[in-house]
Amino acid sequence: MPTTVSAATPGETCTEFRIKVMIFSPEAGFKFDVTVQRKCFPTKFLLIFNLFKKIDKDFVQVVGVEFEAEKKEEQKAIEELSKSGVNTLQSRAFRQKVFPPVKALADGDEPTPAEQQKVHNEIGKAILLKV
User: Fold this and answer.
1) Which one of 23, 70, 89, 128 is at 20 to 30 Å from 76 when CA atoms are compared?
2) pTM of this prediction?
3) What is the pLDDT of residue 41?
């Protein structure tokens, strides 16, 4: 994964990065990963949830969800994920609450606004869980 360093003003730098914080197999034939991405200027953290389905012998990405925090506490929670990884409660929530609605999107149809909102809400809840 590439890392870039950019300067906003002389002497000020921001390092953009992507880091996988979780890889999980919720059921046979599927796996997902959770990646945190930091973007600069303005600095913000995003969470990316990629779902893979086993087709023949390979896992193929079937859904990708980019979660951009709307609230300050969500932004801090995603930043914390990049430092500490996914805790037990978050892992359970990603498996039990986020995976099912994301899997439902894997049929290839364009997701409805309600489906998109459900996934967004479940990711928002999952990242805020603390041990």
Assistant:
1) 23
2) 0.83
3) 83
pLDDT given at position 8: 46
Residues in a beta bridge with 16 = 4
User: How far does CA 118 lie from the centroid of its chain?
Assistant: 15
Q: Is the pLDDT of residue 9 over 80?
A: no
CA–CA separation, 105 and 126 (whole Å)? 19
- Using the structure block, give the residue that is written with the tokens 């389905």: 53
Closest CA to 1 of 42, 41, 48: 48
